[in-house]
Amino acid sequence: MAIGTRFKRTGTTGRERAAKAVDPFYRSKDWYRFRYHVLKRDNWTCQVCGVRIGKKGGHVDHILSRHDRPDLAFDLRNARTCCASCHSRKTVLQDGGMGNVRTAGPGATPACTVQGEPSDPGHPWNR
Ligand SMILES: [Zn+2]
Question: Which backbone phi and psi does 82 adopt, to 5 degrees?
Fold first, then answer.
């Protein structure tokens, strides 16, 4: 593939592109500093499942989402260390995944449960 074709604009709208971009909040110096505080306080241990996290792999989770409580974005009591799997599980349940918009409106149920079973009661697996 020739250089330059990979990031060719494909006619998506600005809003679609913005939804996929990394939130600038998570690139701010304040966030990096805050995140480090939380990881250190929790001793690099997942507060959900207790797994010990490497110094690079830890996620810091907002207990009350930043969307609902932007005023608590830098509140240490509203933050906890999570391993990647606990955090992605929570993120998927909350908003359809990292930076992804829910596909079926607010409050949409994810297509599968935490256990990986389809959440639709009419799904053949649930009959
Ligand atoms: Zn965990």
Answer: -130, 150
Nearest Cα neighbor of 53 from 66, 34, 65, 36 is 36
What tokens appear for 85 in the block?
A: 């799997």
Q: Are 82 and 61 in contact (CB under 8 A)?
A: yes
User: Strands, E, within 10-116: which ranges?
Assistant: 59-62, 79-82
CB 111 within 8 A of CB 122: no
Q: Give percent above pLDDT 70 in the chain.
A: 58
* Distance from Cα 111 to the centre of ligand 1, integer Å: 22
Predicted model pTM: 0.58
The alpha carbon of 35 and the centre of ligand 1 are apart by a number of angstroms equal to 16
Q: Is 91:57 a contact under the CB 8 Å cutoff?
A: no
Residue 109 CA neighbour count, 13 Å, CB half: 9
pLDDT value of residue 111: 65
Task: Say how many Å lie between the CA of residue 63 and the centre of ligand 1.
Answer: 14
Burial class of residue 127, CB neighbours in 10 A (0-12, 13-18, 19+): exposed
